[in-house]
Amino acid sequence: SAKDLGRARFEVFDRALGARAAARLQLEQDLREGIGAGQLRLHYQPEVRLADRVVVGVEALVRWEHPTLGLLAPDRFLPLAEETQLIRPLGDWVTAEAIRQAAAWTGPQPPTMWVNLSPYQLGDKDLTARIADQLADAGLAPGRIGFELVESALLDETDGSHDTIHALHELGVGLALDDFGTGYSSLTYLTRFPIDILKIDRSFVSELDHDENNRESYAIVNAVVGLARALQLSVVGEGIETETQAQALHALGCQTGQGFLLGRPAPAAPSRERTVVSAVNAPTGRLPNDGFA
Ligand code: C2E
Ligand code: MG
Ligand code: MG
Ligand code: MG
C-alpha cells in the first residue's frame, strides 16, 4: 500500500541519514587523531610580482594525508573542523608549521609567508598571543608573515574578531583580504580595519580572458585597483591561469599575481630550502622549480 511504501521510503532515508552521520563522526574522530599523528601537510603556492615574475610571497594551504582516503583538500575537512573544536589545534599546527618553514627560508629577500585564518579562528581571543609565542620560538620577525582573512570575518564585531584583527596588526604581521569582491562587506570596513592587501577573487580574474564579454570584469578589476591605490593598499590577482589574464592584470595596475600559471601549490622540499631561496631571488621570467613545483 501507499502507507507501506511511505514507511519503506522513510526507512531508506533514515538509514542513509544515519550512514552519513556515522561517516561524519568517523571523519571527525580521524581528524582529531590525524592532527596529533602528524597527518596534516602544508602546500605552498607562490605569489609573484607581475612586472618581473619574481616570487615575493608564498601562501600556505593545508592538506590532510588521510590514512585511507588519501590527500584531502581543505574543503573536505575545514568545515568539519570549524563546526567542532578542531579548528583550534588544526590552526595552531598550521601557523606553527608555516612560521617554522618561513624561518627556514633565509636569504636576502625571503618571501612573505601568508596563512589563511577562518572567522572561527578570529573569534579565539588568545590567538594572537599564541602566534606571538610561535614567532618568538622560531625567531621569526612578525613582518615575515601575514594572514589572509575573508570579508565575512569583518562583519561580525560581537565575536571578538575585531579585537583579534587589531591585535594581529599591533603584533606587526601583514593582513590581506582574501577573495575580495565576493563577500558582503561594505567598503567602509576597509578603512576601519588595518588591511594591507586586497586579493581579487579568481571569479573576476578568470573573466579577463574573453575578448568580447570582459568589459565588466575589466571595469571591476580597474575599480578595485583604483580603490586600493586610493587607500594605499596593494592588490594581488588570484587564480591566474593564462598569460592573457596575467598581462591584463598587470596592465590594469595589479602588482602581484597568483595562480596555476605562475605556480601550483606544492610541498616545500626540505633538503633544498636554500635552493628555494636562491631560486626565489634569481632575476627571473622563469619560475623557481625547486620546492614549489
Ligand atoms: P584561498 O585562500 O582563496 O586559496 C586559493 C585556493 O585556490 C586554493 O585552494 C588554491 O589551490 C586554489 N588556486 C590557486 N590558484 C588557482 C588557479 O589558478 N585556478 C584554480 N582553479 N584554483 C587555484 P585550496 O588549497 O583547496 O584551498 C581552498 C580554501 O581553503 C582556501 O581558499 C582557504 O580559504 C581555505 N584554506 C586553505 N588552507 C587553509 C588553512 O590553513 N587554514 C584555513 N583557515 N583555511 C585554509
Ligand atoms: Mg587565501
Ligand atoms: Mg583566495
Ligand atoms: Mg578562494
Can you walk through the features of this model?
The protein contains 12 helices and 9 strands. With 293 residues, it is of the alpha/beta class. α3 (87-104) packs parallel to α5. The longest helix has 35 residues, at 2-36. The model is unreliable at 271-293 (pLDDT under 50). The structure holds ligand C2E and magnesium ion (3 copies). One magnesium ion binds next to β6.
Number of helices: 12
The gyration radius over C-alpha positions equals 21 Å
Show unreliable segments.
Answer: 271-293
Bound molecule types: ligand C2E, magnesium ion
How many strand segments? 9
How far apart are the first and last residues' alpha carbons, in Å? 62 Å
The strand line-up of the biggest sheet is 1-2-4-5-6-7-8-9
Give the integer mean of the pLDDT values.
88
Major beta sheet summary: 8 strands, mixed, barrel
Content-based structural category: alpha/beta
Fraction of residues in helix = 40-55%
Backbone shape: globular
SSE pattern:
HEEEHHEHHEHHEHEHHEHEH
Query: How large is the share of residues in beta strands?
Result: 15-25%
Sequence-ordered SSE layout with sheet pairings:
Layout lengths: L1 H35 L3 E10 L5 E12 L3 E3 L5 H6 L3 H18 L7 E5 L2 H4 L4 H12 L6 E6 L1 H4 L5 H11 L2 E7 L7 H5 L4 E4 L1 H4 L9 H16 L3 E4 L5 H9 L4 E2 L15 H9 L12
Bound molecules: ligand C2E and magnesium ion (3 copies).
Ligand C2E binds next to strand 2 and strand 6.
Protein name: EAL domain-containing protein
Organism: Pengzhenrongella sicca
